[in-house]
UniProtKB/TrEMBL annotation:
Region: Disordered, residue numbers: 143-162
PANTHER family reported in the protein's UniProt record: NUCLEOTIDE KINASE
GO CC entries: cytoplasm
One example of a Gene Ontology biological process annotation: AMP salvage
A Pfam family reported for this protein in Swiss-Prot or TrEMBL: ADK
Function according to Swiss-Prot or TrEMBL: Catalyzes the reversible transfer of the terminal phosphate group between ATP and AMP. Plays an important role in cellular energy homeostasis and in adenine nucleotide metabolism.
Native organism: Candidatus Lambdaproteobacteria bacterium RIFOXYD2_FULL_50_16
Binding residues for AMP: 31, 36, 57-59, 85-88, 92, 160, 171
Protein's recorded name: Adenylate kinase
Keywords assigned: ATP-binding, Cytoplasm, Kinase, Metal-binding, Nucleotide biosynthesis, Nucleotide-binding, Transferase, Zinc
Superkingdom, natural source: Bacteria
Gene from which this protein is expressed: adk
Length: 214
């Protein structure tokens, strides 16, 4: 099954798409994670993407499309995959449909995580991420056992540069102007499933599996 997760920054896309991928035994592909890895590895793509990302702006469509095109052709994607954070613009959504149509494939479901915008800023400001394994914490809602360090591997936790308040505002604006219109695009042909993304994490995961018919 080929699935897209989309929603505002801080809606829980990353956490929930990883959980759903683990349940359905298909890879979860996050363009944000891929770009952060490219920055860490100092690749040409990372160098081009970094300034956009740090400021909270979207990376240009052509860079993202190249990245995704290559990734979904890999052998672990044959049974399907979950896209997290892609598409984020109408150009990307249309390009994805075209890419898949060429392979006689289609995108079956789009999970839209709906959340009160007021909650989003608090979630993002308090987010901390393990510098080694990427596990996410929240200073108030999901604190690690030892403050500042990952429960899984003991590595230090860090704040993403784009989780600073100034970048958060730019990201929310980019979401509102460029990504939110995707809801209409996918609702038109019945692929959109809206899921209420507030409350208990396990309960939200169940709502998502329900929306996927599991
Ligand atoms: P995320 O981890 O999904 O919050 O993405 C972090 C940042 O990576 C975004 O604010 C963008 O700068 C960039 N990014 C990730 N996915 C995309 C995409 N599909 N299109 C453009 N920029 C993206």
């Amino acid at each position: 099954m080929r699935i897209v997760f989309f929603g505002a920054p801080g809606s829980g896309k990353g956490t929930q798409s990883k959980r759903t991928g683990a349940t359905l035994l298909i890879p979860q592909l996050s363009t944000g994670d891929m770009l952060r890895a490219a920055i860490k590895d100092k690749t040409a793509l990372g160098a081009k993407a970094q300034s956009y990302m740090d400021q909270g702006q979207l990376v240009p469509d052509d860079l993202i499309l190249g990245l995704i095109h290559q990734r979904i052709k890999a052998s672990d994607c044959h049974e399907g995959y979950i896209l997290d954070g892609f598409p984020r613009t109408l150009v990307q959504a249309e390009a994805l449909d075209e890419m898949l149509a060429k392979e006689d494939q289609s995108l079956e479901r789009v999970i839209y995580l709906e959340i009160d915008p007021e909650l989003v800023v608090a979630r993002l400001k308090g987010r901390r991420v393990c510098s080694l394994c990427g596990e996410e914490y929240h200073v108030d809602h999901r604190p690690p056992q030892k403050p500042g360090f990952c429960d899984k591997d003991g590595a230090p936790l860090a704040q993403r540069p784009d989780d600073q308040e100034k970048s958060i505002r730019v990201r929310l604006e980019a979401y509102h102007n460029q990504t939110a219109p995707l809801a209409q695009y996918y609702a038109k042909d019945g692929r959109l499933a809206s899921v209420h993304a507030e409350g208990d994490i396990d309960e939200i995961s169940l709502r998502i599996l329900n929306a996927l018919g599991h």
